[in-house]
Each structure stands twice: as C-alpha cells, then as structure tokens.
C-alpha cells in the first residue's frame, strides 16, 4: 500500500482500495520483554482471499530487526521475499499459510509513543492507526481481523504485572526470576486494537454484575501512589456499562475490563479490546488535583472508550477513510451518555452548548482551512493527521442528524439492525447509513453528501409575514464554500428544527400543509434538501420571531437578520435552551465585531446598555440553571470573533474583548459579587452537576470581578486561593490573580501565589501541566516568557502532556501574544515543530496545525508566518506527518 520517502510521501486514495490478498484467522504472539531488546515471536494462520486482486502475501513493518521468517515450517531465504520501505512481499504463496516471524525491537528508543514503547520503566503499546507494524511484520490494516493468543514473559521483579487483550487463561513462574502470563481474546479484532502493558502497577478492582446477571471483573491500573485517584474513573466505567445496557441493549462481552493509565501517551485514550490504555489526564482525579472540567473529561473519555467495545471493536472500519464510522458514532454516544447522567433538560442543553462551542471554534475553522476534508476523506498522506475534529465532532453531528430525522426509537432500530448485520465485520460509513435507511424506510441517499463533501454549509433565512392572510413564510437557501479539491457542492439533506415565538415570548402552535401530521406542535423539523425551499405556516395571528436550528440540529452556519429586540426576546423566552444561549451569543458577537472595528479605526469604545441589561437579567434569574447562566455570561472567544473577519487582527480583537469584559464588570459589579457569594459550595467537594454548576458561575463572576482593579476584588481572589479545599476553586483563583492588572505589590503577591502552587504540587505531573498552561495563556505572557518557562526543570518536550501544556497552549490559546507583530511567536513555533518532529511526529504535526490558516492574517504577519512555514518545510528528514500539514498550508 505504501512506499514512502521523507521527501516525496505517497498519497493514499480511498478509490484505490484493494481488499487484502490474504485473511488472517489466528495470531499467536510471544514476547520476551526487555526495555532495550524485546524479542517478538509471531505465528499466524492465513488463507488466500480469492476476491482480491492482490496476489502477493503483503506485510508491513517499521523499525524492526527481522530475525527469522518461516512459511509452513520452512525458513525463507532473502530471495524468497522482497522488502521495500515498510512493505514485505512474498510472491507465489500457497492458499493456506502458517507464517512464523521473529523480530527484535527497542522500546526504550521509541520516542514516537507508537507501537511498543517504554514509559517510566513500564511497557505500553499504542497501535492505532499503524503502530502494530512497529512490533512485528503483519498485514497491519483494519479489515484484517483475527483471534489473538498472547504469551508475555518478563523479569518478575521489574515487571510484576503482565496484561494483554481479552481473558487471562494462565500465569506462573518460569523458575529463572521471570514469570509469564497467557491471554486469549475470544473475539476477532484488527491489529490496531492489540494491546500489551507490563510493569510495576497497582489496581483498584471491583466485581460488577451485568444486567443479565453475569459477573465481570473491572480493574483500573495505575502506578504506585496514584491508587487514591481512581475512584471516579471506576465509577465512570460502571456508569458507562449500565448506560450502554439500558440505552442500546449492549452488554460487556468479556470476563474482565481493564483500564491502564500512563503519563506518556499521544492521545486521550485507546479502546484496545478489553485493555483500554489511557492518558493519566483522563483517569487520575481527586478533589486536590482535579478540577470540575477534569472530572467531566474523565467521565466522557471513559465512556467513549468503553462504548467503542461495540462501535469500533465488534464492528470496525474497513479502511482508515471510514474512521468516522467508529469515532463519530462513538462521540455521539459519549455526548448522549454525559447528557443523560445530568438528567435534566437544562443539563442536557448545557452539555449540548459545550459541544457546539467546540465544534464552531475548532471544526468550522478546520473546514475553512487547507486541511479541510470530508467526514469520510478521499485521500491522505499520513493517517495520523486525520484524527481530527472533522472526523470526531462533525462526524458526531452527522450521526446526531440521523437521530433528529428518525427520532429516539427510529434511531435505536437503526442501531439494532447495524449490529445484527455487521457484528464481527469491518465495514463502511455507507453500511451504517443503509442500516438507518432500511430500518426506518427512509430514503437517505442524499444524506451521503455529509460524508463525501467537505466544508460548513451556510443556510440563509428569508421570512415574510402576511398579516392579511395570517401566513408566515420561511425560505431557506443553502450553499457551501469551496474546499481543497472540491469547488462545486451539491445540496445537503439538512434537518432544521424550528419554532415560532409570539410577542409574549410563548411558542405558537404550528400549522403547515407540508407537516399536517404534526399540526399544533410547537416545534418541528423542516427538511431542507434543495438549494432553496419555502415553508409556509398558517393561522399566525401576528408577526412571530423564528427560533431556527433548535438544539443545533445541523452543523451549519445560520444566516438570519435578527434585530437586537428579537434577539432579546429569544434570550429571555425561547423554550429551546440552546437557542436562548445562541441569541445571547449573537448579541455579544455583534458588539465585539463592532468594538474590534472601532479599535482598528482608533474610535472611542462603548458598550450599549441594552446588552448589559440583558446580561444582568440573565445573571440574576434564579430560575435558570447556574451552568446555563455561566454560558450566557461567557463572551465568545477571540478565536470565534476572528471567524467574523476576512482578515484577522488578533491585537484588535483582544483589546475589544478585554474592553467588553471590563465594561460589563463596571456596570454589573454588585450583581457579580452577589452571584459569587450566592453560589459558594461549602463542605466536602462533590463533582455532581449542581455543585459544578454553582462553582462554574461563581468562578466566572470572580474572573469578571478581577477586571476591576481594586484591593477588595484582589483580596477576594487571594482569599479563595489560600482557603480553597479543591483544585477547581484554587486554580480559578490563581488564574484570576495571574491575569489581574494591579499595583506592583499585587503583582508580587500574585507571583508569590504562583510559586506556592508549584511548590505544593511539584510531584503531581497533571497539576504542573495546569501550572504551565495557566501561564502560557495569561494575557501578559509573551514569547520571552515562554522561552524562560521552557528552561524550567519541570518542562520537557518528550512528554506530550507537558509539551501541550505550555507550547500548544501558547500557540493555540493566546492569539494576541502568539501573533506578535515582530514574528517572534512564529519563529518559536518553527523551532518547536522541528524539535518535536525528531521526537514524536504525531505531536509535531498537531502543533504544525497552528499555522495552517496563515493567509487569513494581515500581510505584515503573513511574511513572518510564511518564513516560519518554509523553515519547517525545508527541514531535512521531515516526517510525513509534518510535511503533509506544512505543504498543504504553503500551497493554500
């Protein structure tokens, strides 16, 4: 499939898919584990796939020392096979093959954290997408599924714990200071789901009774000293198992389920069959080290990886172009899981808003850049670059549209049919769509365009009210901008959930000839399938205000010309919480754009009373959930404001947003102080939704209050920092103090608190990540400060979490400082990408994405940005991962 060189990497196309020449039925593997010289013996039974045009037996490998290769018991001479790059070919192989391979690898030198590598003296694997080929020669592709039996052997003192996929069937001593463990996975899986963990670990374990009555063993493995931080992960796992049984009728299929936490991991977690390997960030938590956001993240990621057991493992993807088949579907499932655990309508809305904010801020931006690609890509150079928000978050929105169109019961029927048809198979996105169509009797042919067309559709709204006829007509017109390789776009199938509000703010019963079956409903789903369609509602006695795209029913940009008064009505009254929040965001964005333009033109800045009073009313409305009020009071980010401009001026945007925050504080100081005092959470810390909501609003109020430079607000934050009994409140106070613009005395006091925080938590890696990130995103932090922090003894580029906490945070979340007018931020970026490229190409490529929309900035910045991109592109031995990103950016 590949023959890559660093200078001219091969592009892989979906249209060129060829089924494997051989299937693999069973895989037996033996590992003699040694940190610098691990011996791997593999025996696989294979049979020819007569439906394939590939006649050779093809294996893939990378950075392997091949010791021996035997076919059907006969040692193969070098003339019997051919190795080119990462591909090993055996021509003229018989139809039935038993292939035995011995390789040697060096986990200690594997800084890519892909394949088998060493982490703090332990062995860890990460095989998705193509890491298994760094362990042994193998047909390493997702459509090759086999049953695995794995024997692990290692020094018992150094590596007392030996784990792999499936069920433990035998273990014991070998009599020479070593021991063994034999694992068997009863289910077929692709090689990317293989996992191995060995080392000094301890575990929390519980026996858990499934709905069927069967008992299973649940284990959370961590390094010694972290056992007191595993309860939330265990609780999240049990909640996930229970939810999947109740919501989708899916049961855990193994005798045990294991989670292992490691501090060296490129991703959040990995769903290896029965042995999920996690970044410590998404396992370890107690009130002293983890924030509310951390607790929510652990719950979500544990759920996500567990749900993969069925949507990804039992049914997997045929090829990597179908990646969203498992990831988009599983993100939808984990979003629904988190929303269901909250259990209230408002709580579900808060979760929905949080998910949409991420989509708009990151995925919409990706859709508008040189790395834009469909949910099912047509090509790639390096598959690791396509673990993107388009695949995950937009893929989830595509699944959610099925749910919106088919309803709760209809979607469940589609899921049931999907598993009935495809359990144990590697399939395509079209197979999922077919299950949804066949189970519901709906024609979803046009819906395929959500998979094949890139870009964010735009839906323009034109409405006419006829007072005499008492009709209200809504015309929806759709378009989609050109994206790389796709200039012409066909109409999408777009579900637009909507309602109409009267002058009193109440929902109007809806009557439309096209939707007679739903006559009298106050909310319905319009289906936009043409370039332009008009929907007419009758019996409308006065001009209404439309509430469109309720619950964000499709991942589109809605272009509608609301007046401030109409937005105010929606903000105060809409029965759809998402659109209520959306109205507030539109009011805020409108003003922030105007303020940014005023900054650029040197005009006087002002913020109108209508907007401030709308915020005041929301802040003081005790009938609203505190979490919802926090979201309404949170201004659109600088990145979101940037999307409103053809040419982005980061400095002007930052100045405008800071002015808005300061002005809001000036007028709402008493209200903010009241909100702060009214949402304290005394007593023992609890990560329940209500307590989290109170802390969220309280700490948002604190951040606003510290926009007012006086002694009392500073002392409020200082007292909270000193007295806080949980990380959420302590970190919120420290963030406020670090960003406070006060006297020299106050600045010294804030710096003292920053040092005290480090001293208290210097042995807690995840907390020190927060310490670095806090400083990286502080409004006063410049490139020089980042360089100083990179010299700190606690900083290293070798650990992905630590690298992300400082360098990624600065480049991606501190735009006004990263985009320094002298180009120093871009020079730093280039140095970092080049350095990371040598250590970990996957991480380097993620950082490289920070510059892929360089042409959206003023020419004065573009000069520096292009030079930085070119410096990276000209680097010798540049990985495929990084080269693909910078090449597409420069060619845009």
UniProtKB/TrEMBL annotation:
Q: Which residues form the Peptidase M1 membrane alanine aminopeptidase domain?
A: 233-450
Q: Which Gene Ontology molecular function entries are recorded, alphabetically?
A: aminopeptidase activity
Domain named Peptidase M1 alanyl aminopeptidase Ig-like fold is located at 455-560
The answer on whether this UniProt entry bears the keyword Glycoprotein reads no
Q: Which UniProt keywords apply?
A: Aminopeptidase, Hydrolase, Metal-binding, Metalloprotease, Protease, Zinc
Enzyme Commission code = 3.4.11.2
Cofactor requirement: Zn(2+)
Q: Which reaction does it catalyse?
A: Release of an N-terminal amino acid, Xaa-|-Yaa- from a peptide, amide or arylamide. Xaa is preferably Ala, but may be most amino acids including Pro (slow action). When a terminal hydrophobic residue is followed by a prolyl residue, the two may be released as an intact Xaa-Pro dipeptide
Top-level division of the source organism's lineage: Bacteria
Q: Where are the transmembrane segments?
A: none
Q: Which Pfam families match?
A: DUF3458, DUF3458_C, Peptidase_M1, Peptidase_M1_N
Q: Which ranges carry the Peptidase M1 alanyl aminopeptidase C-terminal domain?
A: 564-891
> Which residue intervals define the domain Aminopeptidase N-like N-terminal in the entry?
32-193
The record's comment on protein family reads: Belongs to the peptidase M1 family.
For this entry, the protein name equals Aminopeptidase N
Ranked from the top, the taxonomy reads: Bacteria, Pseudomonadati, Pseudomonadota, Betaproteobacteria, Burkholderiales
């Amino acid at each position: 499939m590949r023959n890559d060189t660093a200078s001219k990497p091969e592009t892989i196309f979906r249209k060129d898919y060829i089924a494997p020449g051989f299937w693999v039925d069973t895989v037996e593997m033996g590992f003699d584990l040694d940190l610098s010289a691990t011996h791997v013996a593999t025996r696989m039974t294979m049979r020819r796939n007569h439906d394939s045009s590939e006649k050779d037996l093809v294996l893939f490998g990378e950075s392997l020392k091949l010791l021996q290769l035997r076919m059907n018991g006969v040692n193969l001479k070098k003339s019997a096979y051919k190795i080119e790059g990462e591909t090993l070919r055996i021509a003229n192989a018989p139809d039935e093959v038993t292939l035995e391979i011995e390789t040697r690898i060096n986990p200690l030198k594997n800084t890519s954290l892909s394949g088998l590598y060493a982490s703090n003296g332990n062995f860890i694997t990460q095989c998705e997408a193509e890491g298994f080929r760094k362990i042994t020669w193998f047909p390493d592709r997702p459509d090759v599924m086999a049953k695995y039996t794995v024997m692990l052997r290692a020094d018992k003192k150094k590596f007392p714990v030996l784990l792999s996929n499936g069920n433990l069937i035998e273990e014991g001593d070998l009599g020479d200071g070593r021991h063994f463990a034999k694992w068997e996975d009863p289910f077929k899986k692709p090689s990317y789901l293989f996992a191995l963990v060995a080392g000094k670990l301890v575990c929390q374990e519980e026996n858990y009774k499934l709905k069927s009555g069967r008992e299973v063993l649940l284990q959370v493995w961590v390094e010694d000293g972290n056992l007191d931080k595993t309860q939330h992960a265990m609780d999240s796992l049990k909640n996930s198992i229970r939810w999947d049984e109740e919501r989708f009728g899916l049961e855990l299929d193994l005798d045990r389920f294991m989670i292992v936490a490691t501090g060296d991991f490129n991703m959040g977690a990995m769903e290896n069959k029965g042995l999920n390997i996690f970044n410590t960030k998404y396992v370890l938590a107690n009130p002293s080290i983890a924030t509310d956001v951390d607790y929510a993240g652990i719950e979500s990621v544990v759920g996500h990886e567990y749900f993969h057991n069925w949507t990804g493992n039992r049914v997997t993807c045929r090829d990597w172009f179908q990646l969203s088949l498992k990831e988009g579907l599983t993100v939808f499932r984990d979003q629904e899981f988190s929303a269901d655990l909250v259990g209230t309508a408002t709580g579900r809305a808060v979760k929905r808003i949080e998910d949409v904010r991420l989509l708009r801020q990151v995925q919409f931006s990706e859709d508008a850049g040189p790395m834009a690609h469909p949910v099912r890509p047509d090509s790639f150079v390096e598959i690791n670059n396509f673990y993107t928000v388009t695949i995950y978050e937009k893929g989830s929105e595509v699944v959610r549209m099925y749910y919106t169109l088919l309803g709760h019961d209809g979607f469940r029927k589609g899921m049931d049919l999907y598993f009935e048809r495809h359990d144990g198979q590697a399939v395509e996105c079209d197979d999922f769509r077919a299950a949804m169509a066949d189970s519901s009797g709906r024609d979803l042919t046009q819906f395929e365009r959500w998979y094949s067309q890139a870009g964010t559709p735009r839906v323009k709204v034109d409405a006419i009210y006829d007072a005499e006829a008492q009709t209200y007509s809504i015309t929806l017109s759709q378009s989609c901008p050109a994206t790389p390789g796709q200039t012409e776009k066909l109409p999408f199938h777009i579900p637009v959930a909507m309602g109409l509000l009267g002058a009193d703010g109440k929902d109007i019963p809806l009557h439309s000839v096209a939707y007679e079956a739903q006559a009298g409903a106050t909310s319905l789903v319009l289906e936009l399938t043409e370039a332009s369609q008009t929907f007419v509602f009758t019996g409308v006695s006065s001009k209404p205000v439309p509430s469109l795209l309720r619950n964000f029913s499709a991942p589109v940009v809605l272009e509608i010309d609301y007046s401030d008064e109409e937005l105010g009505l929606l903000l105060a009254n809409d029965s759809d919480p998402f659109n209520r929040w959306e109205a507030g965001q539109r009011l805020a964005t409108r003003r922030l754009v105007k303020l940014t333009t005023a900054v650029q033109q040197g005009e006087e800045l002002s913020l109108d009373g209508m907007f401030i009073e709308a915020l005041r009313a929301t802040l003081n409305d005790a009938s609203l959930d505190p979490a919802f009020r926090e979201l309404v009071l949170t201004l659109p980010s600088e990145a979101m404001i940037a999307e409103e401009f053809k040419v982005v001026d980061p400095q002007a945007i930052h100045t405008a947003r800071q002015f808005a925050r300061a002005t809001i504080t000036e007028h709402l100081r008493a209200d903010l102080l009241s909100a702060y005092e009214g949402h304290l959470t005394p007593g023992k810390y609890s990560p329940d939704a209500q307590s989290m909501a109170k802390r969220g609003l309280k700490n948002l109020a604190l951040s606003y209050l510290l926009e007012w430079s006086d002694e009392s607000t500073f002392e409020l934050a200082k007292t909270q920092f000193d007295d806080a009994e949980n990380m959420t409140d302590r970190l919120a106070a420290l963030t406020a103090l670090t960003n406070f613009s006060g006297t020299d005395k106050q600045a010294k006091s804030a710096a003292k608190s920053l040092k005290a925080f480090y001293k208290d938590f210097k042995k807690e890696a995840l907390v020190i990540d927060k310490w670095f990130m806090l400083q990286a995103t502080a409004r006063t932090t410049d490139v020089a400060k980042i360089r100083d922090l990179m010299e700190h003894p606690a900083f290293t580029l070798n650990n992905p979490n630590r690298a992300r906490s400082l360098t990624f945070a600065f480049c991606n979340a501190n735009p006004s400082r990263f985009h320094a007018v002298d180009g120093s931020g871009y020079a730093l970026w280039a140095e970092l990408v080049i350095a990371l490229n040598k250590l970990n190409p996957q991480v380097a490529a993620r950082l490289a994405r920070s510059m892929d929309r360089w042409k959206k900035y003023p020419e004065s910045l573009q000069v520096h940005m292009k030079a930085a991109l070119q410096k990276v592109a000209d680097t010798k031995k540049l990985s495929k991962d990084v080269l693909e990103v910078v090449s597409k950016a420069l060619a845009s």
